[in-house]
Amino acid sequence: MIGARVMRTLSEWSSRPKAPGFEEFLAELGTLGLKGTEFDAHAYARALERHLAYAIEVEKASDLTGRGDLAHRVLSSLVRQAGAMGVTQFFPDADPPRFLILTADGLNPWLYQHTVFHELAHVAAGHPFRHRLAPLAAPRPNGRSVDGARVGGHEETVRFPPRRLALRRPFLDENLCESEADLRAEYAILAGNLGQISLQKDNLNQAG
Ligand SMILES: [Zn+2]
């Protein structure tokens, strides 16, 4: 049963470039020291942070109340206005490079884990960060608002994180990146919940 969602997500890839496989994901977990262990999204974030020498913050929108800086305010409004479950802002020029992951309020525990794993998947896979990278200026009266295309009248920008966990090169197509992030989130929930059991050969096929 637990593998059904994974198999469904995989089937969506049938006409697309090769999706990352579960074995590939397990190998990455080995690199992070998480293979065969039980872990949640926060443990995965810490492992990713250590391995890639990044700073990765994970916060809920409601936790940002009273946080003054512009990045937090704009992200918070993105989550609320767009109805997104999560959003990531990449700060490539910070030292170390920094990722701020913000999740919507009121997600159930499974959805919360899935959302954070999804956002972390973009980091692990080295996906380009597009609108997330738009200059964090407040929307101007004559500019489009925070719809991801223009913020404060600035064009969107694209930046690749300097390091990634995945051996494969990242997709450039945004839809493929999103599908891969969903698939990786499913893998992460599967592996993180099953721990040692996830290493049994063919478990994934039998689980559906
Ligand atoms: Zn995404």
Describe the structure.
A hairpin with a 6-residue loop joins β2 (86-91) and β3 (98-103). The protein starts with a helix and ends with a helix. α1 runs antiparallel to α6 (174-194), α3 (41-52) packs parallel to α5 and α5 (109-125) packs across α6 (174-194). It has one domain. It is mainly alpha-helical. Helices cover 42% and strands 9% of the residues. Residues 118, 122, 178, 181 line the site of zinc ion.
Please specify the SSE layout and strand pairing.
Layout: H1 4-11, H2 22-32, H3 41-52, E1 55-60, H4 70-82, E2 86-91, E3 98-103, H5 109-125, H6 174-194, H7 203-207
Parallel strand pairs: 1-3
Antiparallel strand pairs: 2-3
Zinc ion binds at residues 118, 122, 178, 181.
Can you give keywords for this protein?
7 helices, 42% helix, 9% strand, mainly alpha, globular, 208 residues, three-stranded mixed beta sheet, binds zinc ion, single chain
